[in-house]
Amino acid sequence: MGDSSKAAEYYEKAHEIYKKALPPNHPLLAECYNNISQVHINKGEYTKALEVYEKVHGIYEQALVPNDPKLAISYSNIGHVHNRMGDYSKALDFYQKAHKIIETTQPVDYLSLAVSHSHFAACYERMGDYTAALNALEEDLKIKQDKLQAGNPAFGPTYCLLGRVYRCMQDYSKALQYFEKCVTIAEETLPEKHPNRAVMYTSIGDVHRLMGNNEMAISFHRKALNIQENIQCNPLECATTYSNLGETYRAMEDYPTALTYFQKALQIREKKLLKNHPDLAAIYHNLAKLHLATKQYSIAKKNAQQAVEIAQEKLSPNHPHLLEYKKTLEKVQKKS
């Protein structure tokens, strides 16, 4: 975390200088706050990031006209943090505000419009509305294919999201196809140890696990960890890789190793996320399935109940994850 700490230190120094020299609503102060917020995001400190982004937005609302593109970026940034915090309805609301500005700006910034559609898709995917996510990604892809050459790095996030949606829809061959397209772009455009490459490797690994290719899955998760454990990156991304490894070892019935990785993931998520975050529900559910397999029914029941309680609070009643958690809880209750 040394790099993030140094960056935060420099940004704070710049902020102190600007604060003394500039009026409180000066756009340069907002830019400084944006930099500080990004450091918090990279460290998985989403509550702090949100607080700073809201300061930025307050400055922009005073200093800019209502349809200024910077306000759209500000709305999107706040939306991103809410999405990462598991507040998907709030995120969608801010993305819609950003989209409204982008749509009415002349001349139309088509690539910003495409990115806006991808923001909707990311939100819909987390909300479990996979049809809406695909529709939004179709709009995103249509614009990019019209305006950009094939292989442009801007396609990467779109392919990644398509992979995630098709994985959720259990169309694993399509998911793998899109994740591989994304990783091809990443390997051509990003440094070897870039954290985004790690995210793609563990995503590919997870699809291989779902397809029953456990050894292949482990090799991709190891590639991800080789990056994540050796550079400064968002610890929550590392937690996802640990969780994916845990699921793979659980599938291989190596329960002690699976438990080790689940505990690593849980430790990070409990430290970094609010107690009602959907990603905590996911790890509790993984632990419930593990303890069910090892016949530790009382622990499995507790974990399954934790998953269901969070999901009932944060997800829609028909969200696929909530339905899955309830199904696991029913299985445990029959055993206990």
UniProtKB/TrEMBL annotation:
Gene3D superfamilies membership: Tetratricopeptide repeat domain
SMART domains per the UniProt record, alphabetical: TPR
InterPro entries according to UniProt: TPR-like_helical_dom_sf (IPR011990), TPR_rpt (IPR019734)
A Pfam family recorded for this sequence: TPR_10
Keywords for this protein: Repeat, TPR repeat
TPR repeats: 30-63, 72-105, 156-189, 198-231, 239-272
Keyword Oxidoreductase: no
PANTHER family in the cross-refs: NEPHROCYSTIN-3 (PTHR45641:SF19), TETRATRICOPEPTIDE REPEAT PROTEIN (AFU_ORTHOLOGUE AFUA_6G03870) (PTHR45641)
Protein's recorded name: Kinesin light chain
